[in-house]
Design a protein that fits this description.
alpha/beta, L-arginine/glycine Amidinotransferase, Chain A, 303 residues, 3-stranded mixed β-sheet, 25% helix, 9 helices
Length: 303
């Protein structure tokens, strides 16, 4: 049986599910988009092609193989975008959670569950009133950080993907963890003013460091909490525009190896200065759909 164990974002990665880029379907119509970044690129005629998506995800796949990571791919479902594996499931400790995601993405779960290596796994199914996507869950050893939306925001915005009922579910199933929830800014129409998931504005790296965009958080006190927890000197601050380009959404293969996008010159230099090995790849076409490197992965086992 496949072994599961995830307690943070940075321990040495052993097994990961990488999104399937084989057949992500046609360019959607504007009314078929469910995030503002995709909508923006559809309207501008810059939505990625199938060729570019396959090419860039293959670059990521090769980096994972370089570091001897076992890579699992969801079963392909024809004409379905299955690139962002992060949101449709997540592992906390040794437990696999299948969350309740928006109806537009519900078929993606089938691709995950129909991969033969997943057959024998037990998973936590969330109650009907809970809503969660994996991009809103970040693990930091004893801590679980959750991006969420108030009831009023959740009912107002399609990009509000995680509610407080999901926060309570996580608390009840992981009582040994310190759990903190942060409300995020939301917009269905303006990509520059939207934080789709917590990992779009914040991500732990290394041992006690993190990347953060303060404009992604709705409440200033949440930023202050993270600054006090990590220490200001241990944070790399990115701008709202860098958040829009998905700079917080890099991916850690280990505590000292980070996969990043070649476009993030300032961030990559900061990472080099702090002693990280930075594997830079072209991933800008994936970003046009509202996600990046962390969004494309669902880690199953870290050392």
């Amino acid at each position: 049986m496949l072994e599961l164990n995830i307690n943070n974002e940075t321990s040495e990665l052993k097994t990961v599910m990488l999104g399937n880029s084989e057949d992500f379907g046609k360019t959607p119509l504007p009314n078929e988009c469910f995030d503002p970044k995709s909508l923006e690129n559809v309207q501008n005629g810059t939505y990625p092609t199938q060729y570019d998506v396959i090419h860039q995800m293959n670059l990521f796949h090769q980096i994972l193989l370089k570091y001897k990571v076992d890579v699992i791919i969801p079963k392909n479902i024809e004409f379905l975008n299955q690139i962002f594996a992060r949101d449709i499931a997540c592992v906390i400790g040794k437990k696999l959670i299948i969350p309740n995601i928006i109806n537009d993405r519900s078929m993606e779960v089938q691709g995950l569950l129909e991969n033969k290596v997943m057959y024998d796994l037990e998973f936590l199914k969330m109650p009907a009133d809970t809503r969660l996507e994996g991009g809103d869950i970040l693990l930091y050893n004893d801590f679980i950080f959750i991006g969420c939306s108030s009831e009023s925001d959740f009912n107002k915005y399609k990009v509000a993907r995680t509610n407080y009922a999901a926060v309570e579910f996580i608390k009840s199933n992981f009582p040994e963890k310190k759990i903190y929830s942060f409300e995020l800014i939301k917009s269905d129409t303006d990509a520059l003013s939207n934080t789709l998931h917590l990992d779009c504005c914040f991500q732990p790296i290394g041992q006690r460091m993190a990347i953060i965009c303060v404009e992604g958080f709705k409440n200033k006190e949440d930023v202050i909490f993270l600054e006090e927890l990590f220490g200001i000197d241990n944070l790399i601050y990115i701008s709202r525009h860098e958040m829009y380009e998905m700079a917080a959404n890099v991916f850690s293969i280990s505590e000292n190896i980070i996969v990043s996008d070649v476009r993030f010159e300032r961030l990559n230099q900061k990472l080099y200065e702090r002693g990280f090995i930075v594997e830079q790849i072209q991933y800008g076409e994936i970003a046009k759909m509202g996600g990046l490197l962390r969004c494309s992965t669902m880690p199953l086992l870290r050392k």
